[in-house]
């Protein structure tokens, strides 16, 4: 479920990008749940009905697994806001959350996906197999609150980390959860690798950004 949700950049607002810790998980999960609430790829794997609670539980689990594996999360915060305006979730080379590392959370995933668990599991397995084989940074998710989309929050989150990746001369991979997002990520130098195989939902598009230099 490594998908991205962000609208094209509009007028910028005063924000700060800060490094998240596991203690920030509830707020970060709430922001990602709101960002992905209308995402056809992610929502397409959930049972019919209300998606707010299962999405929040899903992102809490994904965040905790990412932290445990050595990954990183960054928050876009603004004065006066009670929760992050945006969240970016990254896996560094060598810190990928593997299927075996997800097994301790299988009970939580069963509660989230219920009858759709086989589809969600298969989709995650196929997504992991579609990753480039060369070591790379993985932009696992980036999302902003609906009211902050189009204000440049997502762009700040992506750009600030890509600057670090470029200094390391490393490649970067992500999945665009809708075809509308492909031009957005192309602005950062990502190139489409085509649809990522999935089961029971709308395919995402794998995108690769080669090392700079």
UniProtKB/TrEMBL annotation:
Keywords: Transferase. The keyword Transcription regulation does not apply. It comes from the Bacteria. InterPro entries: Acyl_CoA_acyltransferase, GNAT_dom, Trichothecene_AcTrans. GO terms for molecular function: acyltransferase activity, transferring groups other than amino-acyl groups. Residues 15-212 form the N-acetyltransferase domain. PANTHER family: GNAT FAMILY ACETYLTRANSFERASE, N-ACETYLTRANSFERASE DOMAIN-CONTAINING PROTEIN. This is GNAT family N-acetyltransferase. It comes from Kocuria tytonis.
């Amino acid at each position: 479920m490594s998908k991205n949700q962000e609208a094209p950049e509009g007028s910028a607002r005063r924000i700060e990008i800060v490094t998240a810790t596991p203690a920030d998980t509830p707020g970060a999960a709430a922001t990602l749940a709101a960002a992905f609430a209308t995402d056809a790829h992610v929502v397409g794997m959930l049972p019919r009905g209300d998606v707010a609670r299962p999405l929040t539980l899903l992102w809490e689990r994904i965040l905790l697994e990412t932290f445990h594996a050595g990954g990183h999360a960054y928050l876009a915060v603004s004065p006066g806001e009670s929760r992050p305006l945006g969240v970016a979730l990254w896996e560094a080379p060598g810190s990928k959350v593997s299927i075996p590392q997800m097994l301790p959370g299988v009970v939580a995933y069963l509660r989230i996906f219920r009858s759709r668990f086989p589809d969600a599991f298969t989709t995650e397995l196929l997504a992991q197999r579609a990753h480039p084989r060369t070591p790379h940074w993985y932009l696992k998710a980036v999302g902003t609150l609906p009211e902050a989309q189009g204000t440049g929050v997502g762009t700040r989150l992506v750009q600030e980390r890509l600057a670090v990746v470029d200094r390391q001369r490393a490649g970067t991979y992500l999945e665009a959860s809708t075809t509308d997002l492909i031009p957005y990520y192309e602005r950062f130098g990502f190139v489409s690798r085509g649809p990522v195989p999935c089961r029971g939902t709308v395919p995402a598009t794998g995108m690769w950004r080669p090392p700079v230099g």
